[in-house]
Amino acid sequence: MLKLFAHIGIRQAKNIAKLILGYPVSYPSLGSMTLDKDDVIIARSWLKDRPDWNNNELVSEYEKQFALWNGSKYAFAFMGGRVALSACIHALDLNSGDEVIIPGYTCVVVPNAFQFAGIKPVYSDIELETYGLDASLIEDKITQNTKAVMLHHLYGLVCRDYEQIINIARKHNLKVIEDCAHSTGAEYKGIKVGNYGDAAFYSSEQSKIFTTIQGGIAVTNNDVIAEKMREYYNQAPIPDDIWIDKQLNNVIFNYYAFKHPQRWLLGDIARLKYSRKQLISTTHEEECGIQPVHYGRKMSSPIAAIGINQLKKIDHYNSIRRKNALRWDEWCNEKKYKKPVVIDNSVPVYLRYPVMVEQQKKINTSWASKELGVQAGVWFMSNIHPADRPVNGCPNADKAVKQCINFPGLLK
Ligand SMILES: Cc1ncc(COP(=O)(O)O)c(C=O)c1O
């Protein structure tokens, strides 16, 4: 606590100096930018009244609303995209000893979900236009144990080889999972991504398109797969009240720390107030590939209430992201960097705007705040970010690890 006080004291002294000299005291945050005062009011009311947090009526309502908005037949809400992925794995009957082809450029919780089920993730390289799986490399990875392909739509872009990947999977009788953790609301041929494969998952973690601090949704349009998804869902426990309390407090904390216009000051006050309640997305044990004890929980009603409110605003915020992308397009044109590719018939949502820059510019991103007034994001810093485990045979992914930075989709 003493260390925190000292840290905050130094930062606020610097902030005051910056204010006096006319420099900016905060930059657009890389997460929680869809949290508003209305979400804080909802979180506070659940904390105050403490009705039955385990009554799952609102969760069903959230699932219904998400399914309708997403154009999916079935939706099941969990406490993370990673858990929703585990539900997809169960629903598709993937079992110990099976292999699944996944991009060699992802978040560690993705291979973890497969490994927790005894499945071998087989990494395949990405292309550098949308950072999705390169379809031309997939067939070489198929063995007699391969049962599925997991494609992803990264940074809010629709992946370049979307249809080809699905066609290859169909040809080889493989199931398709879509990782839509970054791309909730993106569309291809007028249909939301996640509806082309057999099952898909979305994330409402704090750095995503919409947020419930932690959260994820699994969807499918197939009745048989849905039954198995429900089987996983029915055995999933609801988080205990201590966890729900923490999560609601994190809605309030994140609003003041990352969204409020005076976050440079109120964020630090919130850091002191909520220091014991802060949640982290990926624990050290998950980075090491260990399954946390509390893995696999479904969503609770208070968090679904936040989700329902976020869902009301998601189209509005996604349209702002698309407008803001024009600024980054211009910057790429001016600086002669390649823009991310928006494939024909697709509508991206630009969770972040990815650009390949010189390696030095990723090692030290301070130039971005000086030149552009934003923080540059660094997803991903390793092939299975943030874990530093080797992934062989993915040269494009290795290149993206060294050179791909991203700009925020939301600027205020
Ligand atoms: C590409 C990708 N897939 C899946 C996930 C998992 O989502 P969640 O954090 O909701 O478990 C993440 C990240 O956080 C991610 O970046």
Automatic annotation (TrEMBL):
InterPro entries hit by this protein: DegT/StrS_aminotransferase (IPR000653), PyrdxlP-dep_Trfase (IPR015424), PyrdxlP-dep_Trfase_major (IPR015421), PyrdxlP-dep_Trfase_small (IPR015422)
Its family remark reads:
Belongs to the DegT/DnrJ/EryC1 family.
| Name of the protein described by the UniProt record | DegT/DnrJ/EryC1/StrS aminotransferase domain-containing protein
GO annotation terms (biological process): polysaccharide biosynthetic process
MF terms (GO), sorted A to Z: pyridoxal phosphate binding; transaminase activity
- Tagged with keyword Repeat: no
- KW Transferase (keyword) present: yes
Which keywords are on file for this protein? Aminotransferase, Pyridoxal phosphate, Transferase
Q: Which residues are annotated as modified residue N6-(pyridoxal phosphate)lysine in the UniProt record?
A: K208
Give TM segment ranges: none
Pfam family name, one: DegT_DnrJ_EryC1
Q: Which residues form the active site?
A: K208
